[in-house]
Design a protein that fits this description.
Blueprint (H helix, E strand, L loop, with lengths): L3 E6 L5 H8 L4 E7 L3 H10 L5 E2 L8 H7 L3 E4 L15 E7 L6 H13 L2 E7 L19 E7 L13 E2 L5 H8 L14 H4 L27 H11 L25 H7 L5 E2 L23 E3 L6 H5 L7 H9 L3 E3 L2 H7 L14 H9 L4 H12 L1
Parallel strand pairs: 1-2, 1-4, 2-3, 4-5, 6-8, 9-10
Antiparallel strand pairs: 5-7, 6-7, 10-11
Helix pairs in contact: 1-13
Length: 382
Amino acid sequence: MAPLRVLELYSGIGGMHQALKESCTYAEVIAAVDVNTLANEVYKHNFPSTLLWAKTIEGITLKEFDRLSFDMILMSPPCQPFTRLQKLPKYLLLENVKGFESSSARNELLQTLETCGFKYQEFLLSPTCACGFCLQLGIPNSRLRYFLIAKLHQEPFSFQAPGQILTRFPDQDLEDLVKAKVADKVVEASSLSSEEKNLDPNIGPDCSSKKSLPKGAFLFKLETVEEMERKHSQDNDSSIQMLKYFLEDENEEMGLYFLPPKYLLRYAFLLDIVKPTCRRSTCFTKGYGHYVEGTGSVLQTAVDVQLESVFKHIEDLPEEEKLMKLSTLKLRYFTPREIANLHGFPLEFGFPDKVTIKQRYRLLGNSLNVHVVAKLISVLLG
């Protein structure tokens, strides 16, 4: 049997390609397309044998498209380039940012899919998801994204929920509920062994265990009580892995990543600070390492120092003493390799030496989570 022929549009650094490999699908990426020169350098570094077109979608002729004779399109755009094709693909997977689900582009996309005869299902998924079918994930990084899978087939997906955007991967429980027309009901997580969960062996069996915020919890940063409770709840969710399993070993090069004093003084109350034992981190954006506020979590490497003791009454201290206290936390940025780990890129996935740290952050911030997409590919073709 011939391998599935896959076209990767808006290929970036190759997250979709990597996900396809991880899904163990018998497939071949016959071409990748992206106009970003730097991203293309990284793509070629990791997938040197794949045909890579450095051009816009509009710059590809219908003859060029149809000559590829592809079965599947993987892409992350806000548009529908396949509507121009004479020969439609059998399968389609699209990824975009949260918010796309309420856009006019999405409405136009769904209309086009229905006109072309596709059956589709939409999702809003994050790598932290650790319930049912996706219990193997539990990745400590919030990266909520919109996904759509579609197939050119008369039969709908067995788990299809018309008009609904699913917030979890489909499994048998969900399929049964959809068939019973109660798909919005909460589904209990499946009971799996620690090997099946692929999590820390020290994690307990109760994957739904949540603890409330301790009494007298101290609001030491500029956060709402609700946000504090959410973070505390996630840190106590044993179905999510600890950050320490995604970190590099500390070495001399880590000095490059420590926050400079001026950032500590200026942004201390805006930082999302996590320890290696935390089970959460905020979404890393393309501005990480260059901007501080809202671009991703920072790591507290002095694990024995209590945040509360550092931040308590710190606003009343002179600048020198304030800096001294903040410095005891030994805060650093996550390295590009650590972010790549959280995004599911394997250790053999790398960057050309000429790509700077700032550029790596930017490329990773624009990328996707490989594990999430790999599971969706398996669902799409299952």
